[in-house]
């Protein structure tokens, strides 16, 4: 019985992954919520991304810190652009690797860069991690 249940779950997951795409190109929309363990402080992150081409998305977001560094405010508001490489690197469709740039405001103008990775668990829900001048990890949903 356990083997049958295990096989059924694996079959359902593989069917789900066959349709799931971490980045679909123009018109793709994502909302991400995560933890910020490094950067201007420790806190929470909210990000929106919108696909404008097969490899480029733009968006914006905010980070709100519980314990910010003394020379910075308790927030960082930013705009960003990502370059999605998953298809070019022949990654499975439920995975995406993307370098990106951002410009924002926190006690002045901030510039940053990051490298991100997304993994889609189903058609709509996945996990992400971004590391660079700031970083975050959390969950995202496809809209």
Structural notes for this entry:
This protein has 143 residues and is mainly β. It has a single domain, classed as Porin. The chain is 13% helix and 57% strand. It has 1 helix and 8 strands, in the order αββββββββ. It has an 8-stranded antiparallel beta barrel with strand order 1-2-3-4-5-6-7-8. The longest helix has 18 residues.
Compose a concise summary of this entry.
With 143 residues, the chain is mainly beta.
Backbone CA Rg: 17 Å
The 3D shape can be described as globular
Look at the helices and sheets and give the structural class.
mainly beta
Number of helices: 1
What separation lies between the terminal Cα atoms?
A: 37 Å
How many domain modules?
A: 1
Q: Given this structure, which CATH class is correct?
A: Mainly Beta
Which topology does CATH recognise?
Answer: Porin
Helical residues, percent: 10-25%
Strand content: over 45%
CATH architectural arrangement: Beta Barrel
